[in-house]
Design goal:
The protein is α+β, with helices and mostly antiparallel strands and about 170 residues long. The chain contains 7 helices and 4 strands. It has 2 domains: about 120 residues, no CATH class; about 30 residues, no CATH class. Helix 1 packs antiparallel against helix 4, helix 2 packs across helix 4 and helix 4 crosses helix 5.
């Protein structure tokens, strides 16, 4: 991780958390732990994602820098979420915005290419994932699916740990 990526990550979190209550922050962190943020995209001064809400609804979230070009350190950020809470509480963030900010911040720390994309770098110069990220994912998948499973339930638990489903899993007895 570069110092510039760390600075961007920390400043993004600070810009969002400054408008977030403790309860909303805790719920946003819970969404991150349950992998509810999907389709995260970074472009010049903009972060977009979808978040699976507690009611099963998929919410669109967008974080944007108010200035162009996007700053290397964020002091102000605009956000938009199409959930009801965000519509009613215009000054504060919702748990969906918090979750997207947390996931984006983590990805900025892991891939300097995303920081370059945020700064307006060309897509060819700033791929969505670095080659070492693909290697790490391949290693995790190989380890998860080559370990001897104890039961079918164990296989399901391992699979969900790697790529959680966008739906609830109900236990059925045969």
């Amino acid at each position: 991780m570069t110092e510039a990526s760390r600075a961007l990550s920390e400043s993004l979190q600070a810009a969002v958390f400054g408008h977030t209550s403790g309860a909303v922050l805790a719920r946003g962190r819970g969404y991150v732990k349950r992998n509810r943020v999907t389709e995260l995209r970074v472009s010049a001064g903009r972060i977009r994602a979808r978040v699976l809400g507690s009611d099963g609804e998929r919410y669109r979230v967008e974080l944007t820098a108010p200035q162009t070009p996007a700053p290397p350190v964020i002091t102000k950020i605009r956000w938009n979420c199409d959930c009801l809470y965000a519509a009613e509480h215009r000054r504060g963030t919702c748990k969906h915005v918090v979750a997207v900010a947390l996931v984006a911040a983590r990805r900025f720390e892991r891939a300097d290419a995303l920081r370059r994309r945020w700064m307006g770098g060309a897509a060819a110069e700033a791929p969505e994932a670095e080659p070492e990220e693909f290697t790490a994912l391949a290693e995790r998948l190989l380890a998860a699916f080559t370990a001897p499973p104890v039961s079918a339930e164990d296989v399901l638990v391992r699979a969900i740990a790697i790529a959680p489903p966008p739906f609830s899993v109900r236990e059925t007895r045969v």
